[in-house]
Design brief:
The protein has 5 helices and no strands. The chain is mainly α and 143 residues long. It has a single domain, classed as Up-down Bundle (Four Helix Bundle (Hemerythrin (Met), subunit A)). Helix 4 runs antiparallel to helix 5. The longest helix has 32 residues.
Length: 143
């Protein structure tokens, strides 16, 4: 089965992990008022996330199209997995326009509006990135 031998899930998890690290670094940089470094880091985070999205979509449309990867855990682990998967999936859809609006406002220098949405974008984007890694681990490594 392609889902068992494909390198895409590991690549995608690595891209999610990289994005999470960059998001946190970007937050620390702006807290220290290192605006130029924050800008570069957040552009890198958006780029890595975009690469993830392309890789994820390619994998699901062309590599495992029509196939289903089933979670093998039972009991409480199954409940935790599906709770994480559900919130991850919903927020992954929501975060894309949030990231784009936040990025656009920052790049245009509209910093008041940028800060207002970034307060919401940061935790949602970080949650989606971290739970993406957790889903990978639960699906491919732990069970």
């Amino acid at each position: 089965m392609a889902t068992e031998t494909s390198i895409f899930p590991a690549i995608n998890a690595s891209l999610n992990a990289t994005s999470a690290v960059l998001i946190v670094i970007g937050r620390v940089l702006i807290a220290k008022k290192l605006v130029a470094a924050h800008r570069r880091t957040m552009i890198a985070a958006v780029s890595v996330s975009a690469l993830f999205l392309c890789s994820y979509l390619f994998y699901h449309f062309f590599v495992v199209a029509g196939m289903v990867t089933r979670f093998q855990g039972t009991g409480w682990a199954r409940t935790v997995y599906f709770a994480i998967l559900l919130t991850h999936t919903v927020l992954a859809v929501v975060v894309v326009p949030m990231v784009l609006v936040t990025l656009a406002r920052g790049l245009k220098g509209n910093f008041d509006k940028h800060r207002r949405i970034a307060r919401w974008t940061f935790p949602v984007w970080l949650y989606v990135s971290v739970t993406g890694v957790l889903i990978y681990l639960m699906l491919y490594k732990w069970y």
